Amino acid sequence: MADFHFCCSECGLEYPEDPALLVCPECAKSQAPGGATRGVLEVRLESLPDRWPEADTRDPRFLEAFLPVRGAESFPDYAAGGTPLTPAVRLGKALGFDRLWIKDDSRNPSGSTKDRASLLVAAKALEYGLETVAAASTGNAGTALAAVGAAAGLETVVFVPATAPEAKLVQMVAYGARVLPVEGTYDDAFELCLAACREFGWYNRNTALNPFTIEGKKSAALEIARSLGSRRPEVVVVPVGDGVILSGIAKGFADLRAAGLIEDVPRLVAVQAEGSAAIAKAWSAGAAEVRPVPGAHSIADSLTVEAPRNGRLCLRDIRESDGGAVTVSDDEILAAIRELASLSGVFAEPAAAAALAGLAAAREASLVDTPDAIVLLVTGSGLKDLPAAARAVTRPEPVPATLDAVAARLRLP
Ligand SMILES: [Zn+2]
């Protein structure tokens, strides 16, 4: 059993575990509606393991050592995490990087890294005896919640922008979630979910609001550190929308350093879409505040957010890691889908391919260098948004079923 308390990321006030507590009540008093969340709570474990658990990283006995649960039995039977960290030698050669790895989180059961957060939130809901969990989502978080909920026997309610990619909508409905496509933006869905949870007494999984979302996502960092061992990563490149994934990665490495299991934390490079770059703009300007981007837009639906809810904490985490932030265009994201797939065999959704697009931008900005040990976090599968991927390729026309036609099409001699 891992004892823990909450600590406000802004004012430092500490709170005991409380299912009803989402953000710091003191800091929330200055919260403007529709803005970055003030007073995001971080989990502080009273003790951390002083050696790596023997269990596999996907095993609940590994997770219970690092996550705030009563025990391994708190986790529903759902195989989140434990995704491969693969050397990307061909891709590295093509781009001029000596040591490049891909952390392929598209290999989670629902196809995205969001399974990690949903697994922990579901475990906490089960511990608390709560029956219904709701989330606002651009698509992947809701899909992950629906999937884990199906495995755990929890009712799930998902608020998504009505423009969410078809595959994600279909997937979450198939898992049995009650899905509400909201006529509006992700930010509208977020506020509606918040109000609905208050009104109907549901447990709220919204990212940057439920403290267990950042905490759950840290398992990706634990796995990266454990896999690489002494070949420690110097840079982790993370696609950023509301900033929760990056803060989760930062928390994982921070816990490992506090536990004495690693000496240094890697630099974290945030990649945002040009049309949805509130955090990157604040970083470039050296600003303390993350200002919303009205009308935020990108081909990467998972990165499209007007007001990054976790913007303030994400900015702190980027700075404390000595990292940085870059932006990429939709065209660069589309090119990266194809480049990543054809040089590494990993098919990524636009938001995930943004990590690769951001690598080039990060080198231009002198945030990374050729010999650095770099990990690209691929956050979601390309199968989740085929229409976007289709824009990155030219679909071949049918050919007659003859060898002549094959030779002519492929320009064979
Ligand atoms: Zn506070």
Structure in words:
The radius of gyration is 21 Å and the shape is globular. The model has no long low-confidence stretch (mean pLDDT 95). The protein has 413 residues and is α/β, with parallel strands linked by helices. It has a domain at 85-108 and 214-390: Rossmann fold. 39% of the residues lie in helices and 15% in strands. Bound molecules: zinc ion (ZN).
Summarize this structure as a short list of keywords or feature phrases.
6-stranded mixed beta sheet, 413 residues, Rossmann fold, 13 strands, binds zinc ion, 39% helix, 4-stranded parallel beta sheet, alpha/beta, 16 helices
Distinct small molecules:
zinc ion
| Strand segment count | 13
Task: Provide the low-confidence segments as ranges.
Answer: none
SS content category: alpha/beta
Terminal residue distance: 68 Å
Tell me the β content.
15-25%
The largest sheet, given as strand count, sense and whether it forms a barrel, is: 6 strands, mixed
Percent helix range: 25-40%
How are helices and strands ordered from N to C?
A: EEHEHEHEHEHEHEHEHHEHEHHEHHEHH
* CATH architecture label of the domain at 85-108 and 214-390: 3-Layer(aba) Sandwich
Radius of gyration: 21 Å
> What is the overall number of helices?
16
